[in-house]
Amino acid sequence: SGGLFSRLRRGLQRTGSGIGQLFLGRKQIDADLLEELETLLLMADVGVEATTRIIDDLTDRLKRNQLTDIEALQHALREDMRSILEPVSQPLTIPAGDKPFVILTVGVNGAGKTTTIGKLAERFKSEGHSVVLAAGDTFRAAAVEQLQAWGERTGTPVISQPTGADAASVVYDAHQAALARGATVLIADTAGRLHTQGNLMEELRKIARVLGKQDEASPHEVLLVLDAGVGQNALAQAEQFSQAAPVSGIAMTKLDGTAKGGIVFALAQRFGVPVRFIGIGEGVDDLRPFDAEAFVDALLA
Ligand code: GDP
Q1: Spatial CA neighbour of 231 closest among 270, 195, 269, 258
Q2: Which intervals hold domain SRP54-type proteins GTP-binding (predicted)?
């Protein structure tokens, strides 16, 4: 929709405006254009691997006289950027059935985990799902309170226990509650403690164990929440969380306020993990399913 486009466009303006401007008023492809483009891509945190892939392809096409004017170059750039993102452009679909679809969220504190859970609850409810939230970050009282606030805002039950409780036990309770209510989606928060990765891994294993006792396939999605604003650091986080848990999807937050939106390309090129959603604001509606074409168009518009 136009709304989506303008919202995303506004968000990505900082990342992509330099690239769009690079072509303004130019008619011919001069020698240093690709070099300038390379610099802009790197500055937008597209990363060395994805940037090299793009620049190599454009250089190749230039040499073979396939790019006769600026328009052709822009078209090729768009194609190259899309081809990096298309493999990870896989929306999260909740299968029909009577079992709750279980989403475990992981990510460092401050990445936007709680906010994303709240937005997801609203989204799934608007799609007709019945949602239950599990306050699995039992480490911080604030995390539980924050999730409860989102539960109130979105009219979603939040299952919690006092701070310090066993996270797996909270998730187990929440799963029971979801079953009892006939809920179709259960979203569990977890404590993202990277510096104690061993503990995180153990905690996630334990959660998976209690869930697996009731449904072998559960959790159905391990969603890693990453703040786009941290740029290349997001790669390190993706690496570390992938070692601790079977990350099956990414939610990239704060794309509305960063010049580092290119990090999505770097992630796609390096890990190939599906990017499920993007966050483009603090509001309950500011979450969008990731779409490669819309993303590139907004970036280069
Ligand atoms: P958590 O510690 O990972 O649970 O992070 P929070 O959900 O508490 O989010 C941390 C801060 O980032 C809060 O102030 C959120 O409002 C903000 N935030 C989360 N997602 C977005 C987003 O997509 N855009 C913007 N601008 N802010 C966001």
Answers
A1: 258
A2: 274-287
